[in-house]
Amino acid sequence: MVWLQAHACHGAFQGVRVEALEHGLADLAMRPLATAVGVSHGTLLHHFGSKENLVTEVIQRLRMRLADAADVTSSPNSTGNLAYWWQRSTTSQHLPVYRLLFEVYAQAVRQPERYGHYLQQVVHDSLRLMENLVEAGGCPPARAPLVASVIVAQARGLQLDLLATGDRERVDGSFALFLDMLTMLKHTWHQ
Q: Which parts of the sequence belong to the HTH tetR-type domain (predicted)?
């Protein structure tokens, strides 16, 4: 019986994830969502407690999937991994995930009292990963937070640009140019 309940919740969660990716979160309401994924409204409330908890769990799992797909969960060893990360993380398969993440990011900026935890988590996680990456590449620890901020901002901006325009060639070329500029900056780290 417990396995059956866990399996049903997993199936419902997968349905919730698909619904969120296809339709976004702006008009998400628990009752229609429950109907769409084939469970009762009470089941969703029992499992998640609130819409905010549901959104948080969906986003956490999607972020983990992106990290796994881009292979950034392993220990970074240099900024040379950024080209690999960009190639792996911006495939057409992952763009709907970014679309949803940007939607939640914008909502969190608008309503930090509801989604402040998400903002803290996504900003901290991204910056910490990049700080580790640039320090491993030789960046002085005092400059690492600034360099990490530039990398994260550039990547987010270009991801959003790719979503808005679909201009893969220009956006990929812009990221490659950014990596060239980062390589030039790296030469100053050892002076």
A: 6-66
Q: Which of 19, 21, 15 lies closest to 101 in space, CA to CA?
A: 21
**Distance from C-alpha of 50 to C-alpha of 81, rounded to nearest angstrom:** 38
Same-domain check for residues 115 and 155:
yes
Q: What is the DSSP letter of 76?
A: P
- Average pLDDT for 70-99: 76
**What is the phi/psi pair of residue 138, to 5°?**
105, 5
Query: How high is the pLDDT of residue 171?
Result: 98
Task: State the pTM of this model.
Answer: 0.78
User: Per the structure, how many domains does the chain have?
Assistant: 2
CB neighbours of residue 76 within 10 Å: 21
115-139 burial, b for 16+ CB within 10 Å, e for fewer?
Answer: beebbebbeeebbebbbebbbebeb
Could you tell me how far CA 189 lies from the centroid of its own chain?
29
Q: Which two tokens stand for residue 102?
A: 């940007």
pLDDT for 178 beyond 50: yes
- List the domain range (segments joined by +) for residue 5: 1-49
- CA gap 37, 18 in Å, rounded: 9
